[in-house]
Amino acid sequence: MAQPGKTKKRAKHVASLELPPGTFRRFISELSHPDKLLYLACALFAAIALWLVTGAWNPPMQYRPGYVPPSEIHPRVQFSVLDPLATAKAERDAENEAKSVYKNEPARLDQLRARLQSIIVQLTTAKQFDVEVERLWNEFFPIADDEVAPVGPMEREEQFQKLKALFARENMLNAFEQSIANALKPFASRGIMSPEQLELKQGQAASIIVVTSGPQDNKQIISQNDVLKAQVFESIRKNLKIELDSLAKGEDISFLVEAVDYWVDKNLPGTLVFDRVATTKEREDAIAAVEPVMHIYSTKDAVVLPGEPLDATGIELLHAEHRAYIDQRSFFSKTIYSLAILGMYYALGALCAIYLVFKCPSILKDLNEYLLFLVPTCATIALGYWFDDRWQAELIPAMILAMTVSIVYRQEFALLVTACVSLAIVLTSGTSLVAFVTITATCSAATLSMSRIRSRNKLIFVGLWAGVVAFTTKYGVSIVSGQPATVALLQAAAWQGVYAVGAGFLMTGLLPFVEKAYGILTDISLLELGDAAHPLLQKLAQRAPGTYNHSITVASIAESAADSIGANGLLVRVGAYFHDIGKMMKPEYFVENQNASDNRHEGLNPAISTLVIIAHVKDGADLARQNRLPRAIIDFIEQHHGTTLVEYFYRVASAKVEANPDEREVDETIYRYPGPKPQTKEAAVLMICDAVESACRTLVEPTASRIEALVEELSMKRLLDGQFDECGLTLRELRQIQSSVTKSLTAVYHGRVKYPSSQPA
Question: Given pLDDT bands bounded at 50, 70 and 90, which one contains residue 144?
Fold first, then answer.
């Protein structure tokens, strides 16, 4: 029977032999962490927002202008579209059939009657047939011509006398006035149209609208022939004959009937006035009342014929067919399609999340960092959907995102994100495989050209190169997919090239904002930041010239060492410029700024001296934040000593304890820097170079072998102290750094030929 103690030991041993969790288990464990629920909620919100913005409950329209269909396109459902030609014809017919509007002014007939009555009164009351009476009486007779025989003066005077005799009868004048009024009365309400008032278009209509003004406008529809002056006069003539004959009472008054008939014919006015404004409104109302004429397409009809590029008319027809298809889709179909789109979003998101978990975990540890990645990615998909629908310019936001991700994170991550975003844009906007290949190839070309950005022209050249790739890819893939080689295809490919070049120019302007938003440094920013005229460097040179000289030397050595292992040498150089700026607060406590006879640490407790020395890290970080230095530079300040031991004062304290056994044992943690340890290879390079450069100054004869031994000793000491545990530095890279630092220091501290002293003359 096994003993309990041995059983426990065996269980512990078995537990210690268990394999570490696999990739999938680590991924699930990472996602199941409570802090990650907020990240998942943000991802869900982003997916729903994209679903709403892109209208992802319905399939997108698949055709774009310029596409050449290889075969006839038949509608999926029956639909109807407006027939503009038939509708325009119906509107023209309605306009032509619309009635013209005339204003009736019956007062003109009253004026005619009053004038006739006035003339008759003047004639019948005249005492003799003088010149004035003759002039008035002549108005009732036509002028003699080839058809009308002249009437002699004697005959006219005789008729005048008969007129006076006729109207000498009692109440004859009133009866005559009443007869004239009765003859004209039927035409006062309908109106009389003179030839000059007849509108040209009115000839196509059979009737008109007559409006008689009054307390309430009287509006009536009257046949045009019933109001024409020539037709109306015939009716008036009959009425006059009937009314005047009733006054004869056995006498022959035909002379009066003929005279009045001639006078009325000559002076009869038109009472209808064409109302252009009202007529225009009547025609507009008639046009507005026309129902649009629709052309119906069945599923057997060909909407678009093959072999011809889709123009605006074809695209409009296909849009109408697509709207009809969407309208007939059921709620169940929309739900299934929505779930498929949301699933696609989450699948692509999961693909990026897996990469982030294992390659860029820092993004998933800070919500702000996560949102800075999630929001631009979703915005790119939304903009790509919107740009494609209008200008087929989805390449612009996709390429800007690709360049941003490659600058902020890694190039391989930018390639992954670009592929996912391109696929999402293509599926939501309904574009073809050609668009997916074009976007992916162009963004990949731009991403792979973004290794180092040492000038702002670089982004423009990246855009030009991407433009060439976009043009050739669009044209070539379109030909392979069956599109004919036409001028329209060349133009479409050229536009893709223009969009890529435009994205390069846009990124050039956006770069400073990207750097500020993400807190990253490009080579351009580093070159600007590393200017010797920077205020902090100027103050360092004035207050602590020894430290400034040390920083410049370390920067040169560290840049070469970083380049030797493929790290960012420029970043290390600029970080080295600022890594010791905290020493300017108390420069006299650091050996490089002291005179041989001036040592402020004499008489101080080693622990106090250590606190003063260590404080330059915190002081430097505070100065950097006050002067708005980037986070990457602050990291160099905080990490360049890591958690190393301040050996000099630690040994002094240890010696005191050994000399005086009553002293308390030295606590090593008091004499260590607070850290953190170097988190990047660049910070590790700076740590080594900073320590070695300072130590080299103490060498009496800095020969190559001594420098090499010193570099080996100090770098291995930090390796064994665990200072490189968190930066991913390998032993091979450490060896390369040692070799580079040794060469650089040997060049700085090389031996010199001693010249013989001058002999006195």
Answer: low
> In whole angstroms, what is the distance from residue 423 CA to residue 429 CA?
10
Task: Indicate the residue type of 509.
Answer: G
**Residue 381 CB: number of other CB atoms within 10 A?**
29
Measured between alpha carbons, how far is 356 from 30 in angstroms, rounded to an integer? 11
Evaluate whether residue 324 is within a structural domain. no
Which residues are CB-neighbours of 654 under 8 A, at least 6 positions away? 666
Residue 683: pLDDT band by 50, 70, 90 thresholds? very high
CA angle 503, 505, 510 (to 5 degrees): 85
Do 577 and 499 share a structural domain?
A: no
Tens-digit pLDDT profile for residues 379-405: 999 998 888 767 788 899 999 999 999
Give the model's pLDDT for residue 103. 92
506 and 534 fall within a common domain? no
In a domain, 16, yes or no: no
- 484/633 same-domain check: no
Cβ neighbour number for residue 646 with a 10 Å cutoff: 21
Q: For residues 735 and 743, give the distance between their C-alpha atoms in angstroms, rounded to a whole number.
A: 13
Name the average pLDDT for the chain: 85
Q: Are residues 432 and 530 in the same domain?
A: no
Output the domain CATH number for residue 714: 1.10.3210
> Which residues, other chains included, contact 462 with Cβ-Cβ below 8 Å and sequence gap of 6+?
403, 446, 449, 450, 504, 507
Cβ-contact 222, 271 below 8 angstroms:
no
Rounded to the nearest 5°, which phi and psi values hold at 505? -65, -40
Please tell me whether residues 114 and 220 are part of one structural domain: yes
So what's the pLDDT on residue 54? 86
pLDDT score at 725: 92
Longest distance between any two alpha carbons in the chain, whole Å:
175
Closest to 262 (Cα-Cα) out of 158, 172, 177, 137: 137
The CATH number that applies at residue 463 is 1.10.1760
* Calpha distance 287→95 (Å, rounded): 6
Q: Are 610 and 646 in contact (CB under 8 A)?
A: yes
Q: Which two tokens stand for residue 30?
A: 């990472």
Sign of CA dihedral 592, 598, 602, 607: negative
Both 242 and 355 in one domain: the answer is: no
Give the contacts of 41 (CB within 8 A, at least 6 positions apart).
none
Nearest Cα neighbor of 679 from 635, 630, 647, 741 is: 635
Residue 423 domain flag? yes
Same domain, 502 and 385: yes
Contact 642, 676 (CB under 8 A): yes
Helix axes 535-543, 545-564, angle to 10 degrees: 130
Q: Is the pLDDT of residue 445 over 90?
A: yes
Q: Which domain holds residue 626?
A: 525-751
Q: What is the amino acid identity at position 674? A: P
Contact 727, 677 (CB under 8 A): yes
Q: Is 366 exposed, middle or buried (0-12, 13-18, 19+ CB in 10 A)?
A: exposed
pLDDT, residue 711, reads 93
> What is the per-residue pLDDT for 135?
86
751, 703 Cβ separation under 8 angstroms: yes
What total number of domains does the chain contain?
3
Share of the chain above pLDDT 90, in %: 33
Q: State whether 202 and 151 are in the same domain.
A: yes
Domain boundary among 510, 535, 555: 510
Whole-number Å distance between alpha carbons of 87 and 287: 10
Amino acid at 597: S
Checking if the pLDDT of 41 tops 60, the result is yes
pLDDT of 285 over the 60 cut:
yes
Identify the burial level of 563 via C-beta atoms within 10 angstroms of its C-beta, where 0-12 means exposed, 13-18 middle and 19 or more buried.
Answer: middle
Quote the CA–CA distance of 200 and 183 in Å, as a whole number: 31
Q: Specify which of 262-271, 347-356, 684-693 reaches the highest per-range mean pLDDT.
A: 684-693
Q: Output the six-digit token pair for 316.
A: 């409009």
pLDDT digits (tens, 9 = 90+) for 406-421: 888 888 899 999 999 9
Is 655 part of a structural domain of the chain? Answer: yes
